[in-house]
Amino acid sequence: MSKNGKILVAMSGGLDSTVTAVMLAEQGYEVVGITMKTWDYSSSGGSKKETGCCSLDSINDARSIAVKHGIHHMILDIRDEFGDFVIDNFVDEYLAGRTPNPCVLCNTHIKWEALLKRANQLDCEFIATGHYAQVREENNRYVVSKGLDDNKDQSYVLWGLTQTSLAKTRFPLGKFRKTEIRQMALDMGYEELAKKSESYEICFVPDNDYRGFLKRRVSGLEQRVDGGDFVTTDGKVLGKHRGYPFYTVGQRKGLEIALGEPMYVVEIDPEHNKVVLGREEELQRKGMWVQGLNMGKYATLTEPMEVVAKIRYKDSGQMATIRQHGNRMEVIFNSTVKAIAPGQSAVFYEGNDVVAGGWIQSAFDVIHA
């Protein structure tokens, strides 16, 4: 019997999950490895060779690593759940003129639910992943905090995890820097893994072409949305676009329209198939509404609170004051913020701790009374 208990580890065959599993085994846990098959590349229609966490090579790598270290390993096929929820949402959000965040949905509603269900079946006390984040218990709440390595911190994509999920979750890599993890892999004899570059593509868009994915996924999409108007913020028609789902707020490149000066996507109007363009300064907003909240450090906020708000994964964050209104958050930034995209995640921090997160509903210019 292990001295630290039984733990279920998500193993993708990559660097971080490999080090996580081996580290925990060396610490005295009874490790059970699980590799989740979330997507079948052959059904995406993309041209790129199958790579990443769902490829056959990655699954075989995870199994080989588990066998080498005496770790019981299993493969869990969750393609149906993943496709119905994550991919349908991805498509629906673009068709609604928003920019989706599929990794957050996958973590919250697919991967953790699958891990917790299997952990219970196997009598595992904990689950662990290779995310660069930390979790602790404070005042009867489980709090997600940033990982030690600022460049690798992944707390932004974990805001949706419930208190029930966090109670069983361990993030062994949260107290390390990526360089240290690479060195650990080298020390374990995994030179190829240690030197492997990382991919930031969406797993089910293997060629990184989400526009092509949408066209293949939605029959007749181009015919339905082609030929709408590019317009200015005051309604002047500038030309024709190729379909509003193929643009995102803040986009400058790839507009395929010559206007004599840099112009950006300021707003998307799906109802009228319009894409609003403006100068860079017209992207600036003072505040936003965030919906679908998941509260983190505090169960509820009864007073306004000053936080650092992040509106995208690689965002450094901006100081803001938040006010909770039920399941919505009103956010007023200390200074204007560029390119707030509806559909993206907004995550609020007190120091390194996640206070809450949610989905950006809309942005506004002036403070509401």
Spatial order of the strands in the main sheet?
12-15-14-13-16-17
Q: Please provide the ordered H/E string of secondary-structure elements.
A: EHEHEHHEEEHEHHHHEEEEEEEEEE
Query: How many strand segments?
Result: 17
Ranges where pLDDT stays below 50 over 5 or more residues in a row are none
Distance between the termini: 61 Å
The CATH class designation of the largest domain is Alpha Beta
Output mean pLDDT: 91
At the fold tier of CATH, the topology name of the largest domain is: Rossmann fold
The main pleated sheet reads as: 6 strands, antiparallel, barrel
Query: Any idea what the radius of gyration is?
Result: 22 Å
Q: What is the SS-derived class?
A: alpha/beta
Number of domains: 3
Count of separate DSSP helical elements: 9
- The CATH architecture designation of the largest domain is 3-Layer(aba) Sandwich
Q: What share of the residues lie within helices?
A: 25-40%
CATH superfamily of the largest domain: HUPs
Compact overview of the structure:
With 369 residues, this protein is α/β, with parallel strands linked by helices.
